[in-house]
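Hi all, posting the design record for the shared folder.

TITLE: backbone redesign
STEP: 1 of 1
STRUCTURE INPUT:
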């Protein structure tokens, strides 16, 4: 990214499609194979619990807002789904 921002390499090229279509999906499982799942579970148990509470709170808040504002905001179901996915899972969702 730094090299493309400084115009050392092009910002778009056919090789980038190959990287994103094949190399990245293959590299993610390889990284996970070398991880210690039990250690990750032990160290992140509290964080997972907090994340689940926040996710449930987001869904409850969206449901309450939908019930209250359903008749005054067009496309509220789509907006609510988009915002809930964004808040829980990040910008990728």
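Okay, here is what came back for every position:
SEQUENCE:
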């Amino acid at each position: 990214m730094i090299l493309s921002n400084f115009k050392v390499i092009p910002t778009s090229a056919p090789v980038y499609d190959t990287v994103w279509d094949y190399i990245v999906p293959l590299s993610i499982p390889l990284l996970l194979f070398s991880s210690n799942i039990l250690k990750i579970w032990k160290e992140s148990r509290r964080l997972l619990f907090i994340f689940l509470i926040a996710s449930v709170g987001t869904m409850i808040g969206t449901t309450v807002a939908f019930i209250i504002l359903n008749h005054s905001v067009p496309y509220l179901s789509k907006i609510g789904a988009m915002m809930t996915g964004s808040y829980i899972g990040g910008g990728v969702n």
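COMMENT: The helical segments are 2-5, 14-33, 37-69, 76-89.
Let me know if anyone wants the other runs.
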